[in-house]
Design goal:
Number of strands: 7
Order of helices and strands: EHHHEEEHEHEE
Radius of gyration: 15 Å
Shape: globular
CATH topology: Aminopeptidase
Distance between the termini: 25 Å
CATH architecture: 3-Layer(aba) Sandwich
Number of domains: 1
Largest sheet: 7 strands, mixed
CATH superfamily: Gcn5-related N-acetyltransferase (GNAT)
Helix content: 25-40%
CATH class: Alpha Beta
Structural class: alpha+beta
Oligomer: single chain
Strand content: 25-35%
Length: 171
């Protein structure tokens, strides 16, 4: 049994560990090896602590906690970050589950909590960006009702351009 709650400062190191191990597991073969090998939990913890101390307006961090109180998932959502953001469109900035627990339902529980929180903002719909080659994540979001809307962008990682697709879902 897992529960979802708002992230606290005490969760920062666990969230960073989930994020870094999540990136290394999910993006192996998609992002350059040099970029993934350069990621450390310590550096991510420092960045996450700065983010936590100076949160952006409207941003919410949620964690999934197991029966023993350990953090096993993390999601971050807030207002859409677009050229013309709509006040009724929310964005899922990140969702990660401890890699050894992927497929156990934790991600879906966390995503359901994100949607419930988004309705309280109130957002009418949600969007997210997913790496084009991250087929498991794309399937996960499609099973949750998200559809690619045709928008694309690319981010650069160690000199390699990596394409992303935008997905949307009505709430």
């Amino acid at each position: 049994m897992v529960t979802v709650r708002k992230m606290t400062e005490a969760d920062i190191a666990a969230v960073s560990a989930i994020r870094v191990t999540g990136w290394k597991a999910a993006y192996a073969g998609i992002l350059p090896r040099s970029y993934l090998e350069g990621m450390t939990v310590e550096a991510d913890t420092r960045r996450r602590r700065q983010h936590f101390e100076r949160p952006k307006n409207g941003t919410t961090d949620l964690v999934t906690v197991d029966a023993g109180g350990g953090v096993v998932g993390w999601a971050c959502l807030g207002p859409c970050r677009g050229a013309r953001p709509s006040t009724t469109t929310g964005e899922l900035y990140a969702l990660y589950v401890q890699p050894s627990l992927i497929g156990s339902g934790i991600g879906r529980t966390l995503l359901d909590a994100v949607h419930a929180r988004a309705l309280g903002h109130p957002f009418d719909d949600m969007m997210l960006w997913v790496l084009t080659d991250n087929t498991p994540a794309r399937r996960f979001y499609e099973r949750a009702g998200y559809l690619a809307d045709g928008a694309v962008q690319a981010d650069e990682y160690d000199g390699v351009s990596v394409p992303e697709l935008r997905y949307r879902r009505a709430l």
